[in-house]
Target: Phosphoglycerate mutase
Amino acid sequence: MDIELTDTGVAQAHRAARLLAALKPDAIIASDLKRVAATAAELSAVTGLSVTHDAGLRETYAGAWQGLTHEEILESFGEQYAAWKRGEPVRRGGGELETEVADRAAPVVLEGADKLPDGGTLVVVSHGGTIRTTIGRLLGLEPRTWEALGGLSNCCWSVLGEGARGWRLLEHNAGSLPEPVLGDDD
Model:
C-alpha cells in the first residue's frame, strides 16, 4: 500500500542515510511508493545524488491480504498462509507470486549495477519482501528457500558484492556500516 512515513520512519531514514552516505554510493534507485521515495530522498539529500524511481521495486502485491493484520490474514486465509510459510508458490490474497516479484525487481537492480563504474556502489531502496526475493534471485537460491533470508527491520540493509562465482551476501539486516570479515584465510 502507498502510505507515508511516520515520524519514527523519517527519523530512521535520516539515521540510515547518514550511515549509508559513508559508503560513497555512486547511484540510488528506489521504489516509487511514498515511504520508500521519502527514505531515498534522505540519502539523496546527504549525498547530492539523484534518485531513479522504478515501479519494478515496489512491494509484493498481496491482493485481498493488503491492509489486513497478521491475525486477520490467519483468520481468513489460514491454509493459504500456511502453504506460503511452507515455501509453496502461493498467490497471497490473489496477488503476486514471490518469483514474479523477483522477475520484475532483479532486472532493475542488475541494470543499475551494470551502469556503475568499476568498484562502484549502488544503493537500492525498496521494501522488505521485494528485497528478500531479489537477493534470493541474485544469489541463485531456490525460491522456496528465500524465506530463510529473514526480513529486514525498517531502514536496515543488506550488502551484496560480486565475486568470481557471482553475487555474494556480505551482510543482512545490518544497521551499521559493514566491516571486513576476517577468516582463517585472511
The domain at 7-61+101-174 is CATH 3.40.50.1240 (Rossmann fold). The longest helix spans residues 98-114. The beta strands are 27-30, 51-53, 122-125, 157-163, 166-174.
